[in-house]
Amino acid sequence: MKFDVIVIGGGLAGMTAAEALQSAGLKCAVIAEGLSLHNAPRNAFRAAGGTLLAGDRVTGGDFDGDRLVRVHTEKLGDVALEAGAFVLATGKYFSKGIVADMDKVYEPLFGLDVEYDADRSGWFDPSFAAPQRFLEFGVKAEDGRALKDGKPLANVYPAGEVLAGICGAQGDATETIRKSGLDAADAIRRAR
Amino acid sequence: MPVKNEFDVIVIGGGITGAGTARDCAMRGLKVLLIERNDIATGATGRNHGLLHSGARYAVKDSESAEECIRENKILREIASNCVEDTGGLFITLPEDEESGYGLDYQSKFLEACTKAGIEARAISPKEAIEMEPSVNPALIGAVVVPDGSVDPFRLCAANVTDAAMHGAKVLVYTEFLDFLREGDTILGVKVLDTRTGQKAEYRAPVTVNAAGIWGHGVAEKAGVHIGMYPAKGALLVFGHRVNNVVINRCRKSADGDILVPGDSVTVIGTTSTKVPFEECDHMEVTPDEVRLLLREGCALCPALADTRILRAYAGVRPLVADDSDPTGRSISRGIVCLDHETRDGLKGFVSITGGKLMTYRLMAELATDTVCRKLGVNKTCNTAHTPLPGSMDGRIETVSKRFEGGATAGQKGAAGRQGDLVGKIRFESEEDRKLICECENVTLAEIKYAVRELGVRNLGDLRRRTRVGMGTCQGTFCIRKAAKALAEALGQPELADKLAADYLDERWKGMRAVGWGDTLREMEFMQRVYKSGKPYSYDEV
């Protein structure tokens, strides 16, 4: 199955990007693992003819050089989903957009570059109420494209809290997250 | 400034040893003052496995400790039934233990030593062990069943304090020992500071007992006597659910991370043993290396731990004592040390009780109280081995729960489990009272009100130690605002709610920071999100 754009993650950033792209006439699919609380962009996306694969989960993808060609999902098994561009809107630790183990923080789907402090001692402030450094960690991007091994990928656009520096857990970041979804959509349209 | 107060005996330290000593002294008719600078059970008492040792761990190397343990094990099952869970225990042998000299030959030696110490131990096949405890490492080549159990040290300590008070003892928490009142070679009493009001006071008694755990070192110094103490830090990890139902030990020489204990709704692995400087004892942090070690050894006992969320890490300091006869201080005793400083140092009116373990607190208290009585010329025998503690006088949860008309709710059953026969004092008067505040541990508003009314609770940490509020799988994420509001209102100071919640969150955060990766880090992000993202949650909404 082939789409213009596949959006991985059905939260605010993913849905905002998907709705903007579908409304602009691109053929989009959203793969959303969990429950989306963002009804308005989701309904608008479906009304505009978008494909929502709810309750499915991306397990990995195939690259051709610096291009992500297709992704595989848990439910579709051997049937891969192809697209010209991908939005990665998988969120932070809680939704497993990035994963921390004892020694590192990594992006689990494609092994994208993640910005984090190698020295764990600065990750947390002893005061719960103070800003927490670990919540700033996330995927690195250049001109809207995700970095892998230090180089930007051609067609993978991170959006929302998976990105370094964006976090909704320490204050209201709704507008920042929505804007990053729209930025990803704009970048994809510009690249076409 | 000084408030003059006369007692027969002053006990310094509200851990299990001080609480037990206060109870024993009060039961023997003495007028007792117990002082504690924080809340009860805030030192090593609340920072251990909560293991009701069978003594098997000590059987091979230290038969005296083993015999003490099994005797006290049997006593605690009788007098503190409400604090004890009879889980049973396994000592397992793994294939790699053969190579390090702790294979099945050692198991035979172990069995023999247990039997000699009076510990009922029998070998079972690996298959039987897996049937008994399905989470055990299936690679095991041998197992021995022993009468281990789990004990809630907070509850045990609180029950001793409550009983001491019921026998007339005066209990002052958040009261810091500052110095001794002395005249020549005699200790006459203590100077203390109420850490909440800033007020100082003096209390007098012919005998003062130092039961301050590792801090007893400093207390003794103030009296001008030296106890060669060895602060041994022990780190532990709590897992997000009850992984095992039977205590799992490794059948080999005692080592790091070789005991896995189920306690209430969680499982605890521990411990390590590192000498730390005295000034660190107030600020224990668990290091990444300790966590790594505990995880590695824990997974050898129970492989499922590798995929289980760690709730938090914590550490306590064992008050080990160097043998008086060894000037190098290297020969460390794990046994009980009861010092009459009059015969030892020529200082009258001062006794130190230290060393020992949670398991043998009652015996420690008995020895200390015997010494106090001897010094006071009081001839009363000890009855603590036969007298049940409050909460443990009237059977089990089922019996207690029957008192509720129309059957007990989850919150009432939880309260019955925690407060035992004292549950009758909890007033479930309205629908509101029956409402659950902490849903992990089933704590109701009524129980919180009771804890404030009867158990001297002043903050959420105190409340946690009495009711387990916020101790379960969500670590307070969903209940702390509600609990803070309920507590502040019960204290008659509703404006305190935010401060109570903030202090509690910092304390939980400390335990989580040490294990901040994987699923624990996901929980930490979630916790931040619940409390800090955008609009403030109302108390009732969270």
The radius of gyration computed from the alpha-carbon positions of chain A, rounded to a whole number of angstroms, is 16 Å
Through-space gap between termini of chain B: 46 Å
Structural class of chain A: alpha/beta
pLDDT below 50 for ≥5 consecutive residues: which ranges of chain B? 535-542
**Count of DSSP E strands of chain B?**
24
Counting DSSP H or I runs of 4 or more residues, the number of helices of chain A is 3
What would the average pLDDT of chain B be, to the nearest integer? 92
Total DSSP helices of chain B: 19
Q: What are the low-pLDDT stretches of chain A, counting only 5+ consecutive residues below 50?
A: none
Shape of chain B: globular
Task: Tally the beta strands of chain A.
Answer: 14
List key phrases describing it.
heterodimer; A: 192 residues; alpha/beta; 7-stranded mixed sheet; 3-stranded antiparallel sheet; 3 helices; 30% strand; globular; B: 542 residues; alpha+beta; 10-stranded mixed sheet; 6-stranded mixed sheet; 36% helix; disordered C terminus
Can I get a quick summary?
By secondary structure, chain A is of the alpha/beta class.
Explain what the structure shows.
With 192 residues, chain A is an alpha/beta fold. Chain A is built from three helices and 14 strands. In chain A, strands 1, 2, 3, 4, 5, 6 and 14 form a seven-stranded mixed sheet that branches. A three-stranded antiparallel sheet of chain A has the order 11-12-13, with no helix packed on it. In chain A, helix 1 packs parallel to helix 2 (39-47) and helix 1 runs parallel beside helix 3 (174-191). Chain A is globular and about 50 Å long. The mean pLDDT of chain A is 94. The radius of gyration of chain B is 23 Å and the shape is globular. The model of chain B is unreliable at 535-542 (pLDDT under 50).
Layout: helices, strands, pairs:
The complex is a heterodimer of chains A (about 190) and B (about 550).
Chain A: E1 2-8, H1 12-23, E2 28-32, H2 39-47, E3 51-54, E4 58-64, E5 67-73, E6 81-88, E7 99-100, E8 105-106, E9 114-115, E10 138-139, E11 141-142, E12 145-148, E13 151-152, E14 156-158, H3 174-191
Parallel strand pairs in A: 1-2, 1-6, 2-3, 6-14
Antiparallel strand pairs in A: 4-5, 5-6, 7-8, 9-10, 11-12, 12-13
Chain B: E1 9-12, H1 16-27, E2 32-35, E3 51-52, H2 56-59, H3 63-79, E4 84-85, E5 89-93, H4 95-99, H5 104-117, E6 122-124, H6 126-132, E7 142-146, E8 149-151, H7 153-166, E9 170-172, E10 175-183, E11 186-194, E12 200-204, E13 207-210, H8 216-222, E14 229-239, E15 247-250, E16 259-263, E17 266-270, E18 274-275, H9 288-301, E19 310-322, E20 332-333, E21 336-340, H10 341-345, E22 350-355, H11 361-376, H12 397-401, H13 410-419, H14 431-434, E23 436-438, E24 443-444, H15 445-454, H16 460-467, H17 480-490, H18 497-513, H19 518-532
Helix pairs in contact in B: 1-7, 1-11, 3-5, 15-17, 17-18
